Amino acid sequence: MRNKGVLTAGLAMITGAAAWLALTGRADIRYSADHTSTLPMWHRWVPALVGIALVRLTPPHLPAAAPHGRPDRFETVTLVAAAVTFAVALRAVGGGEPAHTLLKIPLLLGVPLVVFAMTRRRAPGLPVAALAPGVWRHYGPAVPVAAWLAISYASPLAVPPDTTAARFDAFTLVATVLVVFLVNAVLEEVFYRRWLQTRLEATVGPWPAIVVSSLLWAAWHVGIQGTGDLAVDLASAAVNQGMQGLFLGFLWSRYRMMWPILTVHGAANAAPLLLGLL
């Protein structure tokens, strides 16, 4: 019952945020920290919902099982606290660099590594889906990932290209894309999905864990994409990164492989910039 309550409350926050933004005429949301351009929020929902449906339909047709073994409550609570602290602190200092990186690395990497060293425990075991043999286990995620990429960047709902890439020389552009990939895509997916969501799954179950980790991941974006109106910023993050987080979380819960979620997250950061070169 508690797990259903967590799931219901989390989904209600996302759908309630969407309804409130629509009713108040704020349905166009920021989608990048690099500029203030906006998109209709449903442009962000469609790729994620299609991706979630395809994850569900693509073999192996196995439940997104919770990890084996008993959850470590100290690890779980500490990771949740680190995620909340990161979101609150980043907004408090006004976001931007170097605050973003100086807060992210110690809180999302340093704190977990210290905790894991203290507990001296292995991460929870792989779910049933990850233990299933066959080609679909390894390549099945390509179907929802490809669909998400096509809708997000090659359809009428596509995110507009970012033309600022033309200002950079080749070395600066490659270095920027690589650093952003490591600091954002890799670190965030390892923390929010591999570490945090996996431990939450062992505590509250797969979908409640996906929703909670998605909302915690969404919350820190207020610090870099906010407008100054906290209510609007939280709602926008919930319907943007929160919905995308559901797709990323389901990919991780179903397949337990890093390449699908790193591809999606990396593309979300780099694709508009690289497409701008075309």
Strand order of the largest sheet: 1-2
Can you count the beta strands? Answer: 2
Q: Please identify the structural class as seen in this structure.
A: mainly alpha
Q: Provide the helix percentage.
A: over 70%
What does this structure look like?
This protein is 71% helix and 2% strand. It has helices spanning 2-23, 41-57, 73-92, 99-119, 128-131, 135-139, 142-153, 170-204, 206-220, 222-225, 230-239, 241-255, 258-275; strands at 28-30, 38-40. A hairpin with a 7-residue loop joins strand 1 (28-30) and strand 2 (38-40). The longest helix has 35 residues, at 170-204.
Give a quick set of tags describing it.
mainly alpha, 2 strands, 71% helix, 2% strand
Summarize the structure.
With 278 residues, this protein is an all-alpha fold. The protein is 71% helix and 2% strand.
Topology readout:
Elements: H1 2-23, E1 28-30, E2 38-40, H2 41-57, H3 73-92, H4 99-119, H5 128-131, H6 135-139, H7 142-153, H8 170-204, H9 206-220, H10 222-225, H11 230-239, H12 241-255, H13 258-275
Antiparallel strand pairs: 1-2
